[in-house]
Amino acid sequence: MRAFAGYLVLLVALPLAAFAVLLPANVYRAQGIAAPDCDGPSSVLIFALPAVLTYGLGALLGYRTGRRFHRLVSLLCLIVALATVPNIAEAVQELYRNTATGECLG
What we know:
Elements: H1 2-12, H2 14-22, H3 27-31, H4 40-65, H5 68-101
Helix pairs in contact: 2-4, 2-5, 4-5
């Protein structure tokens, strides 16, 4: 029953991880416009940080159980968690860029 609850949490968090991977940190740069996006990095981080924590924990717990199916799910969780890391790095870089230029201070 506990494994079913864990898999249910991973299944419910899958759209969160999809948003974390697909949302760009700067929507304007993604369209080819050189303009600062003051809301972009925070909207990415709102989805990406819980997704990394959820799937990272799922990878750790799935690997520790030792069964073949659980290790396969652990590998898939690790892939999802690692897929969000570049977008987190891009969002943090965009936050620093916005702070350094001073365009998004309000």
